Amino acid sequence: MRTVKQLVKQAAVTTATVALGMTLVSTSAQAQNQEQARVTNVVIVHGALVDGSGWRDVYELLIRDGFKVTIVQEPLTSLADDVAATKRILDFEDGPTILVGQSYGGTVITQAGTDPKVKALVYVSATAPEVGESTAQLVMSIPPASNNIHPTADGFLFENPADFAADFAADVPNKASVEFMAHSQAFVAATAFAAPVSEAAWHNKPSYGVVPTEDRIINPELERKMYRRAGAKVTEVKGASHSVFVSQPRVVADVIEEAARDTN
After folding, report:
1. Residues 99 and 153 reside in one and the same domain
2. Tens of pLDDT, residues 219-230
């Protein structure tokens, strides 16, 4: 028969073993929860007059760095349609997500970014409206260097291909690619530019802004003003055009990754 001393010793060993097991389980659960909370999803919303294909280089850099990237192909038929297209993609995301918008895409993410999966917003040469503001209202509040956008007979907007390179992508080295962009424009409904946002996600989500200093489509000073209002962390890219995501994809990818790291 075991003595009282032996029983006490056995109880102490058992208690220590259980405590260690509970600690290991807790540590494992914490690690699993941290991994689940880690932001690796990125959703990109392109701007007007272009489509998502221009984001190929940024996409590949992010994929190589371990991110899961999805690019929204908006119909550009109305702000409501473009927000719905973005939310449709967000519904497929399996966890916390960084939402990126370029140019008019910034207006789209401002509205769609209220989705609970969105943990941070990245504005790339983009509009960041306040509730009640529209893309057109903002852009013309501090007029850009260029105003070569023209209407079609049925109410859509485009840029004369002859002006596209100088206005939209002056620093993109591959001139053949720019020529292709000019002749494969995604026309946008004028009503989409005129529609005000009813929500502004940047009020409640961390925001980041990329300002290309030679942007001729949205005045860089307007971008700085909007980003300051949103409390965004700003990265300025000297000499870059409105198509900074094409000309300097590494810089843009770095800002997106920074947003993910800060959120983590």
Report:
1. yes
2. 999 999 999 999
